[in-house]
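Why does residue order matter? Because the sequence determines the fold. Keep that principle in mind as you read this record.
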Amino acid sequence: MKRVLTRVLAALILLVAATTVAGSLMPTTYRIERVATINAGPAAIHAHVADLQKWPAWAPWEEEDPSIVTTYGEKTVGVGASQTWTSDQGDGELTLTKADPMTGIAYEMAFIMDGRRAPADCAMTYAEAGGSTTVTWTMEGDVADFMPRALAGLMTPLMDAQISDMFDRGLQSLKGRVESGG
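Structure:
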């Protein structure tokens, strides 16, 4: 019995060591990009994207986490518009740093978990072509900003999978809202 327990413990230690080494060697930075074509001009899209109070109608966040409570800053439209949120899954903040009706928006966002900030640079860019507009939604950051390096390397692929799905749903919802005139 003692021999079996020793082997199990040795295997467990080896597994933890291998996982730590693998996580330490993997990249911790991520870049997520999703694209949708919307049958409307950039200005029609911008009306929904540059106004943070319109985000709940198309963004997937509240659908994903119904515990989100959003508080808007003094300004909610254009450069300087901001919001913070609290939820059971973590808190966060977002501020628009660019808002151009022809080219899109950029924003700085940070998730706040256990007192640690996980910043990300995000954008939604517009490229008009023949009556429709290609909207590209991006997010870039470094998972090592809010967790140990070895764990961050293992989490990076999960970030891409989780955020990509939400961006896809958000873009499809935005497309439906804009194309229906809503």
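The mean pLDDT is 87.
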